[in-house]
Amino acid sequence: MTVPQLLLCLSLSMLCISSKPTEKKDRVHHEPQLSDKVHDDAQNFDYDHDAFLGADEAKTFDQLTPEESKERLGKIVGKIDEDKDGFITIEELKAWIKFAQKRWIYEDVERQWKGHDLNEDGLISWDEYKNATYGYIL
Predict the structure, then answer these.
(1) pLDDT tier at 20 (50, 70, 90 boundaries)?
(2) Which parts of the chain span the membrane according to its record (predicted)?
(3) How does pLDDT run across 53-89, given as a tens digit for each residue?
(4) Hey, how many other C-beta atoms are within 10 angstroms of the C-beta on 50?
(5) Can you tell me the distance from the alpha carbon of 1 to that of 74, in angstroms, rounded to the nearest whole number?
(6) Which residue has the higher pLDDT, 39 or 86?
(7) Torsion of CA 33, 36, 39, 42, to 10 degrees
(8) What is the DSSP track for 110-135?
(9) Which of the two residues, 42 and 25, has the higher pLDDT score?
(10) 63-78 burial string, b = 16+ CB within 10 Å, else e?
């Protein structure tokens, strides 16, 4: 091996050793957050309330007295307990949280639709969309 070849080989070796690894990409699909509130059980339970009840229902519960809140939660627990055995399993709780989140999404879509369907014909034209979204003026 000649000196230039040796220097080239040594340079390439040093380059490989000193180079930084490529940035690791996260290939995990993360579930969306159940609430936009901070999840810190040491401070408050707002995140859990939103996840369990849905954002709108959680706001309603915030306005109730402790007695009314307990009564309504008792009714909800009856709905969560799908097999009516008096206990709530993790799967039943997961199904309830998914149900509550989907319900909120569907209700929000309905509100948005009504806000954009200005002539209430069940269809949203481009002009209706521009007007509702951007305040389109001719």
Answers:
(1) low
(2) none
(3) 777 777 887 788 888 888 888 888 888 999 989 888 9
(4) 23
(5) 83
(6) 86
(7) -160
(8) HHHHHHH-TT-SS---HHHHHHHHH-
(9) 42
(10) eeeeeeeeeeeeeeee
